[in-house]
């Protein structure tokens, strides 16, 4: 897993979580950025031919581990570009710790906060 911050990102505080194959080609990725004080997870994908091997879960695990004290938001969109997200995709994100928010299609993960 490689985490990098783009040098010329148009969005402040953007991080890329990427898994590459042996040749350095990206095969799974997620991007986080902060908009209006809220951290969003976006562009979560796994390349065709590599799905079903746990790479999506690895990327999401890295993202949630990187921000244990922040609430993360994720907008789930339909695979086909429609307006109704795929229920299997929502179930996948829920299994990674995200919960459904009041706005249809938006999921969030409540941060775990430790007070010493």
From TrEMBL:
N-acetyltransferase domain location, by residue? 1-116
InterPro entries on file: Acyl_CoA_acyltransferase, GNAT_dom
Q: Which N-terminal residues, if any, form the signal peptide?
A: none
Q: Which Pfam families match?
A: Acetyltransf_7
Q: Membrane-spanning residues where?
A: none
Q: What is this protein called?
A: N-acetyltransferase domain-containing protein
**Organism lineage string:** Bacteria, Pseudomonadati, Bacteroidota, Cytophagia, Cytophagales
């Amino acid at each position: 897993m490689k985490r990098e911050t783009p040098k010329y990102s148009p969005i402040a505080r953007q991080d890329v979580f990427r898994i590459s194959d042996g040749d350095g080609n990206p095969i799974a990725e997620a991007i986080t950025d902060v908009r209006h004080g809220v951290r969003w997870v976006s562009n979560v994908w796994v390349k065709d031919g590599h799905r079903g091997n746990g790479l999506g879960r690895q990327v999401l695990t890295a993202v949630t581990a990187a921000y244990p004290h922040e609430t993360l938001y994720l907008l789930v969109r339909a695979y086909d570009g429609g307006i109704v997200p795929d229920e299997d995709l929502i179930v996948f994100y829920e299994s990674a710790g995200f919960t459904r928010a009041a706005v249809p299609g938006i999921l969030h993960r409540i941060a775990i906060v430790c007070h010493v």
